[in-house]
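Hi P.,

Sorry for the delay on this. The queue was packed all week, but I finally got your sequence through. Input first:
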Amino acid sequence: MANARSRNRRRILDAALVKANVRTLPPRPNGQHVVSDLMAFYFRSTEANDACYSAMINREVCRPIAITTRKPAPLG
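Then the structure:
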């Protein structure tokens, strides 16, 4: 049941993005469509990057160069 709902939501979102002529996720929200703006806001974030790699990468956080040469700590 949950998978069917998930597929249905995906179809609705896909149709909305096609109708708005959104072909790629923008680098940052650009006002073309609320869904692509929300997706860009999240998927381009430090939190999403850390979740993707299951590590504290902190991509958008200012940090000393010495830290960038070490393997990131795993998420807690």
